[in-house]
Amino acid sequence: MLTANQELLPVTEPDLDPWPLTIATYNIHGAVGCDRKFAPERVAQVLQELNADIIALQEVPLGGSRTPNVLAVLQQATGYVAAEGAACDRPERRYGNAVLSRYPILSVRNIDLSFGSHEPRAAVDADVNCHGHLLRVVATHLGLRISERREQVRKLLQVFDTEEMPVILLGDLNEWFVWGQSLRWLVSHFQAAPAPKTFPSRYPLFPLDRIWIRPRHRLVHVEVHASPLARIASDHLPLIAHIVG
């Protein structure tokens, strides 16, 4: 498992065609379902239903003296490689975002998005090698306050200013105002993308979870995964997208 700020040597692979690529984002709510049961194995079953090539996860327990390592359970159950990026990183509790991938992850960075005294936030920034096609995958979970989200989006866009490969931004943005400032900034950078409703999982009313890619023409389809298991395994439904080369 790769942690933030780790890098591997480049992987040389045959120039195979991975397209269309299936990507997903899923806020797993600490592996606690709508029935209040802690059940990482249930989340793992939802991930297997998705059958995605790359999956961004939010609200992931990453281990600690008082916190189980849910990411390790999910990685073992799926067989994917994993990259983690802790937002809260204390000896007793590590918690944050993660990326699971069928393809090699070459390097991982953690972007600190904390704002004042609010709950720590971050984004895990991973370079993925899909048969020689490099993708930059950024998984995040933004804050609850408008001013907090604005500053977090500003930081993310500053990072993307130096992009040298296609960028996929996905995660729980906690933004339900269609014309909120943070969404307008993201749309201006990535262009508009479909935003199906994902929260709450039993009766979705808000499109809190989003998937963007730049260049935009590579995003061809976005849908919600609303299986009976997904409706109870977390308070969010997974969001799936297909991208092409």
Structure description:
By secondary structure, this protein is of the alpha+beta class. The protein has a single domain (18-243), classed as Endonuclease/exonuclease/phosphatase (Deoxyribonuclease I, Chain A, 4-Layer Sandwich). Helices cover 20% and strands 36% of the residues. Strands 1-6-7-8-9-10 form a six-stranded mixed sheet, with no helix packed on it. α1 packs across α2 (70-78) and α3 (146-160) runs parallel beside α4. The longest helix is centred in the middle third of the chain and has 15 residues, at 146-160. The chain starts with 5 loop residues before the first strand and ends with a strand. Mean pLDDT is 92; it is low at 9-14. This is Endonuclease. One of its GO terms (molecular function) is endonuclease activity. Keywords: Endonuclease, Hydrolase, Nuclease.
How many domain regions? Answer: 1
Give the strand content: 35-45%
Q: Class, according to the CATH hierarchy?
A: Alpha Beta
Structural class: alpha+beta
Layout: helices, strands, pairs:
Layout: E1 6-7, E2 21-27, H1 40-50, E3 54-63, H2 70-78, E4 81-90, E5 93-101, E6 105-112, E7 122-130, E8 133-141, H3 146-160, E9 167-172, H4 181-190, E10 209-214, E11 219-224, H5 230-233, E12 239-243
Parallel strand pairs: 2-3, 8-9
Antiparallel strand pairs: 1-6, 2-12, 3-5, 4-5, 6-7, 7-8, 9-10, 11-12
Helix pairs in contact: 1-2, 3-4
